[in-house]
Amino acid sequence: MNCRSLLLLIVLFLSGTACGGDRGGNAAQGDTPTAETRDENAALLPPDDSVSTAVTGQAVKKDSVLRNELLARLDRIERERRAAQKADAVETMVVDLDALFEVLTVTARALDTQKDFRDQIDSEVKRFRGSVGAASSTPVRLMNAMSGVYAMYALLAKMRFVGRGAMQDQIQSIHDATVKVLKPDSKPVHTAAVIATSAYRLSRMIIQDIDSKGLYSKAFDSIEERYAQGNNVAKQDEDRYINGVFRTFEVSQLWALTINPAKRGIIKDISSGITSASEEAENVGEQMMVATEYLYKISHFIAGETVTLTL
Questions:
Q1: How far is CA 201 from CA 165, 178, 197, in A?
Q2: CA gap 42, 30 in Å, rounded
Q3: Cα separation of 3 and 188, whole Å?
């Protein structure tokens, strides 16, 4: 399978997915501003004891079998990720995107306590893994990984806003905008940049809704300001990809804190790690790799805490 044929499949796939059926339903150099991430969000966060640790917002029956299965799956994802690491920055980025997709499916399965979305989750996994098996090159794998990650963020958003028509319409609006700018002849890095932007928008929607008391409003404003500044100075698709993924990381950091504020120290360590690694990156490929790696890391943490606290 070549890049053009896979991108055509992705465009067709995105045209009929993301929100799925029922809308109401159950930067060129290492110091580029687009890659900037800051520790200042920590100063905008509420005190440790002011954040609810509720994940689903309702009492659920504990499922120890599923909990153990998903925790074991997270361990296996990390082992397989480490074993698949490459010397090349872009190939390593693709490995981390594949792992990110798998981690997001774990979060989705943990949150799907009533099994309302089980078939959709399984369908995304089947499509993704089938495409991985057919991928013949790094660009093809990149496009498949990004489309899978996007689909899972869209599904998580759909799950969060069940029965809320206005929010489902907003998800659909993001989806329509994503599909509109992707063409069968789009370059892989352009596809990645477009989807990174959509992933940021979707993750921001989810986490702002979780923050129903507005405890993180200043942090969200700061992240959005950096997102806008990054787009203003972006000169190429690589810059836009970095900007979208870094901002998704930052809002995911807030997600992690809402789930378990008691582990603020671990979350800060991850944040410090991305800052240091970003400063050390020597070129755009390494910046893309760093952004992707740390989005995977914070998402892996979120998945583990969601499983432990929900099931």
A1: 18, 11, 6
A2: 23
A3: 8
Side-chain half-sphere CA neighbours of 97 within 13 A? 31
pTM of the model: 0.84
Q: Is 249 exposed, middle or buried (0-12, 13-18, 19+ CB in 10 A)?
A: buried
pLDDT in tens, 141-191: 888 899 899 999 999 999 999 999 999 999 999 999 888 887 777 888 898
Looking at the chain, the whole-number percentage of residues with pLDDT higher than 70 is 79
71's CB contacts (< 8 A; 6+ apart) are 304, 307, 308
Q: Is 206 exposed, middle or buried (0-12, 13-18, 19+ CB in 10 A)?
A: buried
Q: Is 30 helix (H, G, I), strand (E, B) or coil?
A: coil
pLDDT tens for 29-88 read: 333 334 455 544 444 444 444 443 445 455 455 778 999 999 999 999 999 999 998 888
Within 10 A of 114 (CB to CB), how many other CB atoms are there?
Answer: 12
Nearest to 207 by CA among 248, 260, 265, 266: 248
**Cα angle, residue 78 at apex, residues 76 and 81 outer, rounded to 5°:** 105
